[in-house]
């Protein structure tokens, strides 16, 4: 079964990357199928490819095509059917003081300072923790024709979290989010996803695309908490079934 439904309106060239060490599962090799996101129909292209399990980074959309491994499972939240559990409702209540503002995706020094604090606290051994201000600006602004940068601020105006999202024809795609690591009682990681579900509902969109769920990776396994969750299978998008 093809993962792309044939609705692309123009010839699109795809490429395959060389082998690299997998960043999520030790000892495995990663390869990606990718293409550039450009042209006047970039939003439609991004929508079609997101529905086919691709993700965006800068102006590249990609999907893992790793030999002998299918650990990366594309997942999305069906907005109309999503009901937060008790711990999620607590996270929502802990952040009722936060205001939400959607703006054009433009990187700022304030965002970058928060981004660095988040990276050094949560992912200190990653390449992203060593990104420069220019690198951060490129991440936010490149390939962002249909993107928005959502900021979350407290009553004092302090930036507590931010989420870069692609506004697709059928949903919001969570490209990258980061938050204040010094207030764990707020559960900001959970709250941001809940806020994206609410944002999608307000925009009349059906899904929130969360990227890849990787059961063997602690950094990615948390996504399974947001039930009901749909995963992309050989038979299309289906409810995610977790054994055990």
TrEMBL record:
Belongs to the R-transferase family. Bpt subfamily. Residues 21-90 form the N-end aminoacyl transferase N-terminal domain. NCBIfam families: PRK01305.1-1, PRK01305.1-3, PRK01305.1-4, PRK01305.2-3. Its EC number is 2.3.2.29. InterPro entries: Acyl_CoA_acyltransferase, Asp_Glu_LeuTrfase, N-end_Aminoacyl_Trfase, N-end_Aminoacyl_Trfase_C, N-end_Aminoacyl_Trfase_N. Its main location: cytoplasm. It is an enzyme of class 2 (transferase). The keyword Cytoplasm applies. Residues 110-232 form the N-end rule aminoacyl transferase C-terminal domain. This is Aspartate/glutamate leucyltransferase. One of its GO terms (molecular function) is arginyl-tRNA--protein transferase activity. Pfam families: ATE_C, ATE_N. Keywords: Acyltransferase, Cytoplasm, Transferase. It is found in: Cytoplasm.
């Amino acid at each position: 079964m093809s993962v792309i439904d044939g609705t692309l309106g123009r010839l699109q060239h795809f490429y395959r990357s060389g082998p690299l060490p997998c960043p999520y599962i030790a000892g495995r090799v990663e390869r990606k199928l990718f293409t550039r996101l450009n042209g006047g129909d970039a939003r439609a292209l991004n929508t079609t490819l997101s529905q086919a399990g691709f993700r965006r980074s800068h102006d590249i959309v990609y999907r893992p095509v790793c030999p002998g491994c299918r650990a990366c499972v594309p997942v999305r939240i069906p907005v109309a059917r999503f009901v937060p559990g008790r711990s999620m409702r607590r996270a929502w209540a802990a952040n009722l003081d936060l205001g939400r503002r959607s703006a054009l995706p433009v990187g700022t020094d304030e965002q970058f300072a928060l981004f660095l604090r988040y990276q050094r606290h949560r992912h200190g051994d990653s390449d992203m923790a060593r990104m420069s201000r220019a690198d951060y600006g490129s991440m936010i602004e490149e390939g962002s024709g249909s993107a928005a940068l959502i900021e979350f601020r407290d009553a004092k105006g302090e930036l507590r979290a931010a989420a870069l999202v692609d506004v697709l024809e059928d949903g919001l795609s969570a490209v990258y989010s980061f938050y204040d690591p010094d207030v764990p009682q707020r559960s900001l990681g959970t709250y941001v996803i809940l806020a994206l579900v609410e944002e999608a509902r307000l925009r009349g969109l059906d899904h929130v695309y969360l990227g890849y769920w990787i059961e063997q990776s602690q950094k990615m396994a948390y996504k399974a908490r947001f039930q009901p969750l749909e995963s992309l299978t050989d038979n299309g998008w289906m409810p995610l079934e977790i054994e055990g």
